[in-house]
TrEMBL record:
Belongs to the ABC transporter superfamily. It comes from the Bacteria. InterPro entries: AAA+_ATPase, ABC_transporter-like_ATP-bd, ABC_transporter-like_CS, Metal_Ion_Import_ABC, P-loop_NTPase. Keywords: ATP-binding, Nucleotide-binding, Transport. GO terms for molecular function: ATP binding. This is Manganese transport system ATP-binding protein.
Length: 260
């Protein structure tokens, strides 16, 4: 493979140890307990689906891994580095939920994808030919080349998702976190993103991806985590999709009724 999708070229990718190691993470927002003693380890080259009901703590987990939410307790190591160091080194990339992004910001699609290259540029942020090439290739991979100069806010929901996935690809991060990249995207975009993530993992990258699309989970992921403030299960997608496991995660009884 060639190009940014396969470019897991950071120094960390040559180190031993897990790609992501989360231990005993506990996060409160005021009185709300969002994460309760969450531990998980992801090996390099794996895609892990993060499954849980609304409010189960998925976004909080991503933010704590990125170091933008401060845990009460616990630790995060990304290729052995603390979140801030890993962010600075470009080792970890994050595709946020659409609701978290200010779409009125006057940036083109090209600008957004180029943001993935900031870590590689000098302090004046002058893109070099390698940065431009990585951005062009990432745009091509997500089929947005024709819209590169459009304002990000003037894209459809699925196109916006693809633009942020392109930013992660251009960055060539070893560990990519995606918060619901399939929400509001059509089947074709979903297939494009899935294929790109599989290529990333085949090149040694590690992906943690939250999704509400349970049916697509086995196609997407090698393993799955069921989250309900705590890790209820970390196993194969097939294990996670067993009715009794889903019932625990989603508060459903086996006849499909929702508990209050
Ligand atoms: N900034 C905040 N202030 C207070 N409470 C918050 C804040 N952000 C999240 N929460 C609460 O923390 C809990 C976990 O929220 P989080 O956004 O992590 O869930 P989620 O699994 O990502 O949900 P969804 O599937 O709806 O995106 C919820 O109870 C939520 O209401």
């Amino acid at each position: 493979m060639s190009g940014p999708a396969a470019s897991v070229g950071h120094a960390a990718s040559t180190q031993g140890g897990p790609a992501l190691d989360v231990r005993g993470l506990t996060v409160h927002y005021g009185d709300v307990l969002a994460l309760d003693d969450v531990s998980l380890t992801l090996r390099r080259g794996t895609i892990c689906g993060l499954i849980g009901m609304n409010g189960s703590g998925k976004s909080t987990l991503f933010k704590a891994i990125m170091g933008t939410v401060k845990p009460d307790r616990g630790s995060v190591a990304i290729a052995g580095l603390a979140p801030k160091q890993a962010r600075r080194a470009g080792i970890v990339g994050y595709v946020p939920q659409s609701e978290e992004v200010d779409w009125s910001f006057p940036l083109s699609v090209y600008d957004v994808v180029m943001m993935g290259r900031y870590g590689f540029q000098n302090f004046m942020r002058h893109p070099r030919p390698a940065d431009r090439a990585a951005v062009a290739e990432a745009l091509d991979r997500v089929e947005l080349t024709g819209l590169a100069h459009r304002r990000i806010g003037a894209l459809s929901g699925g196109q916006r998702k693809r633009a942020f996935v392109a930013r992660g690809l251009a960055q060539g991060a070893d560990v990519l976190l995606l918060d619901e990249p399939f929400a509001g995207v059509d089947r074709r975009s979903e297939a494009t993103i899935t294929e790109l993530l599989r290529e990333l993992a085949a090149g040694g990258g590690t992906v943690l991806v939250s999704s509400h699309d349970l049916e697509a989970l086995p196609r997407l992921a090698d393993e799955a985590i069921l989250l309900l403030r705590r890790v209820l299960l970390h196993g194969s997608p097939q294990e996670a999709l067993r009715p009794e496991q889903l019932a625990r995660a989603f508060g459903l009884d086996l006849t499909g009724r929702t508990e209050e």
